Amino acid sequence: MIKSTKKFIAVMTLVVMLLSLSLANVSAAAPTSGSSIVKNAIFLIPDGMSVNATTIARYLLSGNEGGSEKLFMDQFVTGLVTTTWAKGPITDSAPAGTAYATGHKSLNGVLGIDPDKTPKATLLEAAQLKGKAVGLIATSEFMHATPAAFSAHEEKRSNYAVIAEQMLNQDIDVLLGTGASKVKPEELNIIETAKAKGYEIVNNKAEMEKSKAAKLWGNFSNAFNSTDNLSYDIDRKASEEPSLAEMTAKAIDVLNKDKDGFFLMVEGSKIDWAAHANDTIGIVTDTLAFDEAFKTAVDFAKKDGNTIVVAVTDHGNSGISIGSYDLLGYDSAPFSILTPLKGATKTAEGAMALLKEDKSNVDEVLKAYGINPAGYTPADITSKDRDTYNNAKVNRLITIFKTEPTSSNLIKIMNQKAYIAYTTGGHTGEDVPVYLYTPEKVSKAPLIGVNENTDVSKFVASSLGLSLEEVTKKLFVDVTERKGASISDNVLTLDENGKTLTIKANQSTAKLDNKTVDLNGEVAVYINGRFYVPQSALDLLKK
Predict the structure, then answer these.
(1) Tell me: the pLDDT tens digits for 169-197?
(2) d(CA 222, CA 229)
(3) Which residues are catalytic?
(4) Which residues contact 273 (CB under 8 A, 6 or more apart)?
């Protein structure tokens, strides 16, 4: 009996040991609760970058005439994303940005609100509420549709003063772009307000790189060109004006100091602007600049091990294509038809900036755009020979430009020479690729195949452990018809429990009786006749 008992105990001990080892292995192999959550997210948006833009950009890579060399971001394509807005296939940048920022489709021209014009929390706001550092980068003015969609809630995307006020009060840690002069000082002095809020203002590359500030505001305007916008990458003076990749690196350096992690949105804004102008040089060179910024983000993420990087276009633009009606047969179109694109040293905007007032240097302008004005002679426009036929058309366009030197006429020459065609000067409704880098613990599955633009936002939120809907409930409580509430001149007064709360729309401070209270970047908004305040403000009224 004793021997049997000992034998039983020995067997059971062995079973327990084996089970323990088995469970340990399972535990080691299977992700624990929350293990797929990352600390940081970098969301890059190449505004208006159509698939053909990336295709042509490959041909501009050094020594890549056959198009076999790839862009850095090519290896990270996981699927396609639809670009529809709430009511149609061709979106404005405002609802496109809103879809990526909030996970809600919306109406053209509006920011950070749903089709019912109700404010919805953004990824940036949700990350900030969780204690993360946040940043925005754009090569356009910072109040432009995409950056604004991540940080403002407004019915009219053109209402820059309101958008700027909300963004300033949101306490964003890093904002790099331009646009301070786009709002009249009497409406809102952006620079002085930013200084008062503790931002260090940097105006050029050297100042940006030198800065050690935890709150950084880049106002790269007026210093580089007459348009008061950041230059196209090929036009910029590299010693003075930062590239998109350099701004991305700086923002990561600042934001990464936060122990709770960070969220950063980076927009290559002027790909879209070049596409509107049908300027192939601007499109492809800014696409290459965006590729460098994406690489900067991924290089950081690989070293960090706790960061996701997502890049996706908000919409197509221009209907750009390789091949035009003037191409006389596929066999007559070798890779070399795109070679003229490599001769440009300026975009059309940059080349036209060289034009003297007396227009005496049109040849210089042409050469800057990659066109040799002496390289074409009149020829038979009816010729069946590709080169003869095309050179005749190019010569005709050069003659027109010399008489009427405009950006539009300059662009037509290059597009004719390189057989690049466009269907429109506006947005287009095609699906666009999504590029994704994740650490091993994060599955790419949610963005494989064809996805809605709102799915991208949901994926980023899930990866950061954020609930956009819960944050919406905390940040935007409708108090319009609340007992004791009155609204006048964009100011809410709320009497409750013997206390009086006063808060102005677009502000993140409130007055409780006569005491000013900081709401830590949580902004009140007044939209469509409804007043929304953060729950933290209402908590001040509790007994």
Answers:
(1) 999 999 999 988 889 999 999 999 999 99
(2) 7
(3) 93
(4) 48, 140, 282
Residue 384 half-sphere exposure toward CB, CA atoms < 13 A: 2
3-state secondary structure of 121: coil
Cβ distance 96 to 109 under 8 Å?
no
Taking the C-alpha atoms of residue 333 and residue 338, their distance in angstroms, rounded to an integer, is 9
- For the chain, which residues make up each domain, given as ranges? 46-120+303-320+426-458, 133-257, 331-421, 474-541
* Coil vs helix vs strand at 311: strand
Helix (H) or strand (E) holding 418: helix 407-418
Report the alpha-carbon distance of residue 509 to residue 499 in Å, rounded.
Answer: 16
pTM of the model: 0.91
What Rg value do the Cα atoms of the chain yield, rounded? 28
Q: How many CB atoms lie within 10 A of CB 289?
A: 23
Q: Distance between CA 123 and CA 538 in Å, rounded?
A: 23
CATH number of 474-541: 3.30.457.10
pLDDT of residue 434: 97
Distance, in Å, from the CA atom of 195 to the CA atom of 128, rounded to the nearest integer, reads: 21
Question: CB within 8 A of 477, min separation 6: which ones?
Answer: 532, 533, 534, 535, 538
Strand order across the 530-533 sheet = 477-478, 530-533, 525-527
